[in-house]
Amino acid sequence: MRAMNISLRQRIRGLPSGFHLLMLSDALSGLAMGAGYVSISWWVVSTGGARDMAWFSTLTALVMLIALPLTAPLGDRFPKNRVIAGGILLAMLSGLALAAMAWFGFYKLAWVVASESMAMFAWSIVFPSMLSIASELVPAARLTDALSLQKSSQSVGNLIGPVVGGSLMAFMPAWLALGAYAILLAIAAVGALRIQVPPRDLADLRDESFVDQVRSGLRVRWRIPLERSWAFWGLLVMTAYLPMVVTLLPIKLHQLGLPAIWLGACEAAASGGLLIGSLWLTHRLLQHCSRPRARAFAMWALAAVFLVVALTDSPYLMLAMFGIEGMLLSITMLIGQTHRTLAVPEAYRARVSAINVLVAKLGGMLGPALAGILLASWSLDGVYLFFALFHLLTVPPMLLLPGVNRFLGLSHDEVKDWYLRQHPEAFEPIAPAAGKLKQPI
Questions:
Q1: Which spans in 72-173 are helix H?
Q2: pLDDT digits over 372-389, tens only?
Q3: Contacts of 364 (CB under 8 A, 6+ apart)
Q4: What is the structure's pLDDT at 14?
């Protein structure tokens, strides 16, 4: 623990005050999202059942899937702190709408999905900027520390939020839990507005049309072979992974006759593991082995964890497994995200980061939809085991991505703008969409 505290102080030292405010805003956002996820999921599964939960997860993921390509350029086009704050305020309105429904005892799946869709649209605005803003606040040499601390601050919020949401849902009316979610979001928005972002030259970006910025972000991912393969196999990973933590977990806990606090506890355990992993475990592991080996260890171990979760009915064992899952997830996220962020030129980072979120949300739509289909004819345990085995089968392709070990072996100075040097054609100006329409056929 003493070593962890020393390492934490060393990593915080020298980082600008704007990054400290980003950590605070991330912690508050994580707190709100953690409380909101538990409150909304438990309200849906306890009121509407497993079928409603599957539809809810699928349809809200579809909204973000559609919104992400459209909102991705906002973080490159406008100051990221304002983009983040504006998106969080929009999510707050969604929370207020859900709290009002619960207050009046009004539950209709279509209206719940519509209200949560507003939040999904809001988070599609927030996530790309939240994922890339650290690279504007700190130098490249400190980005690993910055991303680690950012994940840690998010984990602190996610550690407390589910416990708050689960406790309120277990002992208080649903409207109070959902109202608390909206209030936390309002506070997080204020924190985001206070982040001081260094000025950037945005003239060229604003001369480029919004549609062309969307197209350029998609083209960057498609024209780089490593990123294209990463996106495809990452989609399959997310299709297998997300139903196990978003859709099936609340259903399984509810069928076991457990109160909402257990869902909050599992989410908090995962966030606590993520916190330990990002603050200490990942750095210690990288002192003893290479990034590719650390990534391989984490991915195989994560697959084993979900097999245990699928096969057990013990809530205490599930709780322990989700704690381990958080630690392992931090390893895979930190190792990949730092390099992939630095490899992209700064002017493209928000829209390119959005593609990563887009892939996750496409998996978040396909996975729950498949889970809903399977639940109609299979037992819950059978469906959980199917997704655990599916997740296991995605590990070898993710470890064999073309050039991934060489890429992860680069230092932070070497990897900065690496994609631009290796694939300049991916960043060439493209013909404006409007101009193409005017060309003769």
A1: 74-77, 80-103, 109-132, 134-137, 143-171
A2: 999 989 999 999 999 999
A3: 57, 61, 64, 65, 238, 242, 246
A4: 67
To the nearest 10 degrees (0 to 180), the angle between helices 17-71 and 210-223 is 90
Residue 199 carries which DSSP code?
A: P
Q: Are 34 and 157 in contact (CB under 8 A)?
A: yes
Handedness of CA 270, 276, 279, 284 (dihedral sign): negative
CA–CA gap between residue 279 and residue 285 (Å, rounded):
12
Collapsing DSSP states into helix, strand and coil, what is residue 402?
coil
* Amino acid found at 70: L
CATH class of 18-196+208-429: mainly alpha
Measured CA to CA, the distance from residue 407 to residue 410 in angstroms comes to 6
HSE value, Cβ hemisphere, 13 Å, CA-based, for 205: 19
Retrieve residue 357's tokens: 């979120």
Q: CA 275 to CA 154: how far, in whole Å?
A: 8
Q: What is the pLDDT of residues 81-100, one digit of tens each?
A: 889 999 999 999 999 999 99
Identify the pLDDT of residue 208: 53
* Residue the block writes with tokens 């702190």: 81
Per the model's pLDDT, the better-predicted residue between 418 and 212 turns out to be: 418
The C-alpha angle with vertex 194 and arms to 193 and 197, in degrees rounded to 5, equals 90
Instruction: Give the whole-angstrom CA distance, residue 339 versus residue 286.
Output: 14
Angle at 144 between CA 339 and CA 84, to 5 degrees: 90
Buried b (16+ CB within 10 A) or exposed e, 180-201: bbbebbbbbbebbbebebeeee
Sign of the dihedral defined by the CA atoms of residues 177, 182, 187, 192, in that order:
positive
Return mean pLDDT, the chain.
84
Q: Which structure tokens are listed for 286? A: 């990288």
Residues 6+ apart with CB under 8 A from 193: 81, 82, 85
Sequence-distant (≥ 6) Cβ neighbours of residue 88 within 8 angstroms: 29, 122, 126, 185, 188, 189, 192
| Alpha-carbon gap, residue 263 to 37, rounded angstroms | 10
Q: Is 73 helix (H, G, I), strand (E, B) or coil?
A: coil
Among 152, 87, 82, 97, which residue's Cα sits nearest to residue 122? Answer: 87
Q: Rounded distance, CA 260 to CA 265, Å?
A: 9
The 10 Å Cβ neighbour count of residue 390 is 20
